[in-house]
Structure prediction request, 145 residues.
Amino acid sequence: MMSWFWTASALLIGIAPGSDQDAAPVVRQGVDMMELNHFVDEEGREVFRQVIFYDWSSTYHRFHVRAWRLVKQESQIPRRRWNPQRYQCTWHDDGLLREVWAPKLRETWTQQDPERVNRALLPEDQRIPLFVPQVAKSEEQAATR
Prediction:
């Protein structure tokens, strides 16, 4: 009887028994804005959805793309969180659980890819990466010792 109680309690708080949810490290990153973009064809039919992550450039007074991700599952769509108030996008990537949050979200329907348009303002090789691998930093520190 007690094991049923603990199993039901774990499910209620979002931890499935035997799940590897706790095993995947979580990498969190904040950006200034997210965009849920619906790329549509000439008839207005959705071709794909993507989430674009932006930071504000105080130098140029505009948003610059940091990264983007195709939406492959409904769970990857940014969700409104209330405490603290922000939008959050979460997905699994190479054994990590990636979580990006932003205070602002805009949703657009376009026939031009906003990420590609933004490349004219800031080339891809000049973008600040969304996630900086922590392993590389540890290896560099060990090498300098």
User: Anything to note?
Assistant: The chain has a mean pLDDT of 82. The longest strand covers residues 46-57. The chain is about 20% helix and 40% strand.
